[in-house]
Amino acid sequence: MIRKVIVYILLSISAFVLFFPILFALLASLLSTAELYSGHYIPSRFSLDSYLQAFGTIPLFKFLVNSFIVSSIVTLGQLLLCSLAAYAIVFIPFKGRNFFFFLFISTLLIPWEAAMIPNFVTILNLGWLNTYLALTVPFLTTAFGIFLLRQHFMTLPKELYESAQIDGCSRFRFYWSFALPLSKPMLSALAIYAFLTTWNMYLWPLLVTSNENVRTVQIGIRMMISQEASTAWNMVMAGVVIILLPTLLLLFLGIKHIRRGLMSGALKG
Amino acid sequence: MHTQEWRLFAEGLMYLSPALIILGVFLFYPMFKTLYYSFFITNPRGETVAFIGLENYMHLIQSPNFQHSMIQTLKFVLYTVPTGVLLALFLAVIANERLKGVEFFRVIFSSTLGVSVAAGATIWLFMFHPSIGVFNNILAFLGLAPVPWLTSGEWALLSVAVTTVWMNVGFNFIILLGGLQNISEELYESARIDGAGYFAQLFKITLPLLSPTLFFVVTVTLINAFQSFGQIHILTGGGPNEATNIIVYSIYKEAFEFSRFGFASAQAILLFFIILVFTVLQFKVGEKKVHYQ
């Protein structure tokens, strides 16, 4: 009994400390400028002025749309390309498939930052600066995604595949109508993870976007700081809350999937 | 190969080729190109101007700026890795208890996984604010002098480190909690029958069996620390006095502010080898230590 109480106390303190920055951002976004500068932390009245201001000062809405488009394309691309590759490695008995698998896995050794300079030059030469192409195409496949789906495809019963073949079901048909639907939990895990990481990307969008047409929210928030930091922190915090909402919601709703995905990546790797 | 085998090979390749092309163009090719650049002087469009052999690397070894950057990088790793892992381990252990409502705490502890570098760093930038930031307000309330969180070289690296630890907690927590949940309940039961107390169970069962997961978390956190960029760009811009100019930030500055692609590439190759060592270590040791149940 005493042990339970102690654990609850530890849990509560830790939760408060860890969640404090997010809570703090939320509270600060609701403060009026006068309250903010007189050291208040609890808003005296509920007002969404900072939010309206945030949308008015920078093209936040446009940035949000850009982030949604970019993250959705990358997520769909990864689901498709990673699953195709993983499917071939598991279900098509061609020579060299293990070689290709290790080739894919070996990219886990390359930190993205070590490849970014030539990638920037590639994008520059392709004329892709300030386009969605620059923000999406390089990320349409990850070794992590291929690995995750390969592990899952290997657990699908081989008999199912064999009997489908006997019934004259083509390889692509089996991929589309059996392998993918049977992997929904793993695909969701990958989708959530891909969306989160793309939405949160910072360094690459900073390099390849210089105007509002394609810029993502993460760079938008940085713009806000440089424009507004001296005056309107409540507005900056409103911006932060807006860009946090989609990913936090996704995380809270998909936490089970994410856990499963991350765990199979961590333990079986 | 027989025709049948060729046909299978062609079919397999058809499924693989989109992924192969993407990874080839945006990871394999640039990796070699980085190595190539590191032997050259380049112009701002990325064209090589003069072959200089290993001079970039020599310059790297001799440059006091880069030595300073490496020292700050190692300090940053030292500040973030042990604290980040231990904090997540503590949270995972207390959230692994079978209690009512524990799922709520698990979600809270995972939440920073959904916080982007930019948003997280911006919140901390505000909390570190010299006059209206919450930390200095608390200090003032306690009658203590304000701390120059981001404006003194001594403090800035520490402040960036604290922010980083906070941002990593969610991921580390999820992995460690999963590792804990994989440990069979029977082990604890038989230990309890033998009269083992809470801490005996923690040190004799939990930690040894968790060691592969713990090792994974340590290497991932290490690699992440070496790759940190966004929080530095937002919080300090590498300053004050280069105190937070850690390796990826240094690469970014050399390449995209000073257009010295060759010199930046030499640093990128160094980063590649540092991360390679840790990843190989993870694979080697991880393989040996995994407990098959």
UniProtKB/TrEMBL annotation, chain A:
Main location class: membrane
Domain ABC transmembrane type-1: 64-254
Lineage of source species: Bacteria, Bacillati, Bacillota, Bacilli, Bacillales
Family matches, as PROSITE patterns: ABC_TM1 (PS50928)
Alphabetical list of InterPro entries matching this protein: MetI-like, MetI-like_sf
Signal sequence range: none
Transmembrane segments: 7-31, 68-92, 99-120, 132-153, 174-196, 232-255
Name of the protein this chain belongs to: Sn-glycerol 3-phosphate transport system permease protein
Alphabetic keyword roster: Cell membrane, Membrane, Transmembrane, Transmembrane helix, Transport
Subcellular location, record wording: Cell membrane
Protein's membrane topology: Multi-pass membrane protein
Similarity comment: family membership: Belongs to the binding-protein-dependent transport system permease family.
Gene3D superfamilies registered for this protein in UniProt: MetI-like
